[in-house]
Amino acid sequence: MTLDRQVRDAHAAWLQIRNWESAKIVALLESIAEALDSAKSELVPVAMEETNLPEARLTGEVGRTTGQLRLMARAVEDRTYLDITIDYADASLTPPRPDLRLKTTSLGVVGVFGASNFPFAFGVAGGDTAAALAAGCAVVIKVNPGHPRVSRMVGEIMIAAALKAGAPAGLISLVEDFDSGLALVEHPLTAAIAFTGSTHGGRALFDVANRRENPIPFYGELGGLNPVFVTRAAASDKAKETAEGFLGSITMGAGQFCTKPGFLIVDGASAINTELSTLVSVAPAQKLLNSNIVKSHDKNRDEIAQVPGMRLIAQNSDGGDTNVSVYTISGKDFLAAGESARREVFGPTAVVVDCSDSAELLKVAESFSGTLTSGIHATESDPMDLSLLISHLERISGRIVWNQWPTGLAVTWAMHHGGPYPASTNPLFTSVGAKAILRFRRPVTYQNFPQRYLSPVLQDGSAELNGARINGK
Amino acid sequence: MTLDRQVRDAHAAWLQIRNWESAKIVALLESIAEALDSAKSELVPVAMEETNLPEARLTGEVGRTTGQLRLMARAVEDRTYLDITIDYADASLTPPRPDLRLKTTSLGVVGVFGASNFPFAFGVAGGDTAAALAAGCAVVIKVNPGHPRVSRMVGEIMIAAALKAGAPAGLISLVEDFDSGLALVEHPLTAAIAFTGSTHGGRALFDVANRRENPIPFYGELGGLNPVFVTRAAASDKAKETAEGFLGSITMGAGQFCTKPGFLIVDGASAINTELSTLVSVAPAQKLLNSNIVKSHDKNRDEIAQVPGMRLIAQNSDGGDTNVSVYTISGKDFLAAGESARREVFGPTAVVVDCSDSAELLKVAESFSGTLTSGIHATESDPMDLSLLISHLERISGRIVWNQWPTGLAVTWAMHHGGPYPASTNPLFTSVGAKAILRFRRPVTYQNFPQRYLSPVLQDGSAELNGARINGK
């Protein structure tokens, strides 16, 4: 089938479901979740072959994926995504106010580009697909070339489960080749794009979406350097604990997480560096997703190693596809190096920036820009006043983590996964958690409408008006 | 002062106010509103000279402008724009959930580009400025070249009122020349742009914002064709009333409104066209904003007159800068002409599309795309089933108006002024009404934070937690 035909079919399917009552959308999401849970034992081995990720992680990831689908079902039941807002007519105002009733409506066909590092949770049935379907959209999904077989399997399961739940054919479909992905972003009937992946690839598609005759919303989650800051007190009181936590976080998923803390900025790093040199050298072997990722990791690592003043603390030697490598650099050299030192290395490589005092730590903080997360490690009654640091981190981060590590993302209502560019191409929205549904709905106001042509949720006396904003209250 | 210095000063001022308590922002907005109300009698005569708009309209517009500032103050007091959402830590979950607290934060320096047609309400102190200040942002405002003198006066009044309310210098400033406007969109410290104006100019700046190394949110309200559909029953039962309403709407503000209904699509237009030919010929003289607008109106009108099958119904002859011109074309010819017939003419020109039946009316409806508003005129118990028409209008419109006219915009909570491109470059947000504040805030999640470093509104026991979403409820 051509891409054009596929998008047209998706558009036609969307027209059929766009006014579905919420119970049918909930049933659709739950049908898909149930089918994926049932197929777990067939899916995981294929994903293991394609991604080198271990069984326990992938099994857990299927559960996370179906959990995301079910959280989206709860968000649909919750109805706040409809944003129902009513101002009744009021002839006593100057000028007189007409009857105005607002609710959101679904955008249309959403093109989804999944990531390489989470074959399930950010894959074909991942968070973006769940959010788009929950919003009442159709999806055309570009398969990540890193795991085509398991993606096809998930796609078939989803499509069958959707048909079983009464969805029209064409509501969900996959494309595989690069050119079809590009054509999907350009297609006149595509209404929005959701992308998770590299800054380079995401930016290229963002540019295509904005060059369209009618530009469309592009939700790209492109990554982050995720700097974590350690006060002098914490560096001295909790050197071992901090070094262990950092190493655990940068090797989780073999360092292939968009929330990996690539930079640990320490006010006095010598104790932590000593701990790291022991710990890193005996770190377990790392298997990366595929040979392309190994190549690009090693290249980026070697480039960061060339930054003047950069020094290797330790590397592990236990086989694997590549080494775990932790470098260190003084705050002064880091600041002198500029952009070349602030580079995302996808894989198990990280940098400790060794600052001479808290003022230099703040200067290093100010050299970072848009990032998904940032973090602070401090003691219970830390002598450093962290207000200035927090103030800067608020300006650049989507999430700030205190005395924990940024990897491992809770999928909840209060999660924000986004942030100023390049964390996200639209910093107002999260790509993870219940609020991710909001990306695929836009408001429409109905002025002076007769009851019979209003959506049931906006009609006088509808249950949905309870708790809605009425006359500004 | 150079533009660079100006944006840096605005950024520094933003850093000072970004954590202001809401009462101080409310006082700032009310101080500006009060100062503008007091200066009404000095402002209106200058605006009259610069825009040719009549005294009554401009006096009312100052009131609308200060009403917008006060509505924004109410939105700040309301606090829902903070979007406070909390998930408390829960160790019993798999995986255990950390404490997550989300609130929105202001974006930074907002560049505001005001419109020519509303020197006050969409001008220097207009809706975008009010929304950005309410959100806790600084503003650098590009003055519209159509009314520089009154813009400077409004700017001086605003800046003085802001200082009086305790705002730091630099929080509000103006730029005038074209190159400074461009540099404002490109400046690294500019965090978002709000633009109201032509599709051509807005698209050019949208492209600049997206070409930045770090693209920023661009909220452009670029216009619309605002098609209004009339059923056969309404065309016959209410021909005179419909013709009068239509003429009133297309000549309000001399047709220089972005919500002007440029196209009236009628199932059987002969009675309405007969009424229009009488009414239009005696329509009052029109004074346009300035000679450039006259030139561009006349050029666009003459081009639409050249569309094959287009026929002039009537033109007024009462002096003025240009004529009121209403054309008509058959549905068949309109569809055959394609894009060349669907052209926005800024000024008192409009087109009646005369359809032979309701099926053709639907086909014409489907030829329209993104628009701020659309409308339907029908009778009480209209025999036409309007579901299909409404379904299409929902897909292309930000607001749908029933048996009223789209001009005259209520500034309320339930208003949506936006829509698919080119109505808006971001169809998820309104540029008018209380929700316009949402464009200038983005979420941040605080994970595992100690109470002492949380914003007061997120601390345990804060009044703002009442009514907030806690643990997904």
UniProtKB/TrEMBL annotation, chains A, B:
List the CDD domains hit by this protein, alphabetically: ALDH_KGSADH (cd07129)
Q: Where is the signal peptide?
A: none
- Occurrences of domain Aldehyde dehydrogenase (ranges): 3-411
Q: Which GO terms describe its molecular function?
A: oxidoreductase activity, acting on the aldehyde or oxo group of donors, NAD or NADP as acceptor
* Record key words, sorted: Oxidoreductase
Q: Name one Pfam family in it.
A: Aldedh
Under the heading PANTHER family, the entry gives: ALDEHYDE DEHYDROGENASE-RELATED, SUCCINATE-SEMIALDEHYDE DEHYDROGENASE, MITOCHONDRIAL
The name on file for this protein is Unannotated protein
